[in-house]
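Example 4.3 (complexes with small molecules)
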Amino acid sequence: MATILPSVNDVRVEALQNFTEEFGENANICVCAPGRVNLIGEHTDYNDGFVLPMALPMVTVIAGKANQSSICKIVSLSDAVGTRNLVEFDISNRRALKPGEPKWANYVKGCVAKFSYDGLVPGFNAVILSTVPVGAGLSSSAALEVATYTFLEAMTGFVSERLEDKALVCQSVEHQFAGVPCGIMDQFISVMGKEGHALLLDCRDLATKQIPMEHLDDNLFLIINSNAPHKLSSSAYCERRDSCFEAAKLLNKKSLRDATLEDLEVLKTRHCPQITIKRARHVITEIQRTLEATAALESGNLLKFGTLMNESHDSLREDYEVSSQELDTLVSAAREVDGVVGSRLTGAGFGGCTVTLLRKDAVETAIKHIKKTYKGNATFYIAKPTNGARQLEIK
Ligand code: NG1
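Answer. The structure with NG1 bound is encoded below.
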């Protein structure tokens, strides 16, 4: 059986109750922001390419209230950061806030520091509760940033005019307060997710297109968490990013978005290391696959979509070298099941999750077969596309 996630409403109610227990009064603001699964377009966001993520019913909820002081008192109850974690910090000079310990609080501090509002941001009490697993490639960090930013908007009444700007500020928090030089995909989808849709995002000009998932008919996306967290991911992520920038520079191009397969031959003549050529080949082919996959989804050609998912995984394994034994086992076991249309790793790689497109009537057989084959303890979730960050009722 796939794991049944608590509904957003359940998480909301629990967060509000916990706030009352922690602070002895009721919260007057409650917000949530979702994690995401990327269907295709991996390691393309920082190369100005295309990505196709969708927002998940896994969410980070923040319940809170301004507290008439300049102190933020925040309790995190997320699985992510242990059972109960309290942090306090002074925001009288919020622009001067710096990252520190505990690490999880840096996402909150960063948003307070960078919130694009010139007025006074009051201190506040808050409870954070999340169902987005950490280190699984489902964007728990973006969910926390975007939820915090949405909370600040609700508290101050200062709402970003353009959703793009909100996502960009949250990305800069990830860069400067978490030290992760990520692309723009995670924050965009957490802000802009739409029920029943995936989001095609052009990471160069930030143009977006909501892609309806109505053609899925009797099929669905299954997320499988290997529960093997991202290993080596931050150093390996930076190395690959640097290789891509190096390849673009050798080609005198702004980014690999502008490169073609012919350029791989040019790289050979410019003494480019073989490994850099492989990295570039993944990015160039993945950008193309993402566009083809979007067209396939729009026209209901799911077989084509599945084939492209498989090719994406193979390219991530062979050329980008970000898969792992656990992810490869999950993907190949899934592909052995009748009714599976395509399967690939999702997110940065080196652990985390896979995403599989399959017929609804094949789900139980697939889960059984994968559990038998996979030595670790995998968790299975059915992925339904949901809305992006929003305010929730406080009643
Ligand atoms: P995950 O898998 O959530 O860590 C990372 C980056 C994305 C993107 C993907 C690969 C972070 C926070 N996000 O996602 O921007 O580059 O890898 O497609 O590192």
